[in-house]
Amino acid sequence: MILVVECIVACVIFTLVILPSLYKEPIKHIMSYPLAIRKRVESLPQYKDIIQTKKKRHLTIKIIAIFVFAIILAAVAYLSGAKSFSEAYLHVFTLFLVVNVYDMLVLDIGIFCHSKKTRIPGTEDMDKEYRSPLHHVRGAVIGTIIGAVVALIAGGIVYFVSVL
Question: pTM for this one?
Fold first, then answer.
């Protein structure tokens, strides 16, 4: 039961972190947009400098986030009763998977694909590209792989804490 509550809380927190920022300034999330839209935005002069900065920071932030999430989720799993590598791995992977599927179905396909608030100025005519769910499904597959890596690291952290 605690895992279900944690999944709901994680989805709410994820929504509160992503959605207001996406609505306020969609260009900040450009690296998560479909390729055709990114290419259009890159070709628009008003975004030239912003895009280069975002590309450089994107990978660095993702790598740091993997380790930060692994530590936080290892603590959540441990405090939830996971005391072995496999228990922690399953706990963290389940949390990550639930948030990932929620992100794909609710935030990406449900909101992003259909909300005019997520449109970057200069790409409003690209309705077909915005509405295509394929990009988001691919993203969810990648997110699942990242989740497995985070769960492995978190499982290792819990294992080492339990042995000490």
Answer: 0.89
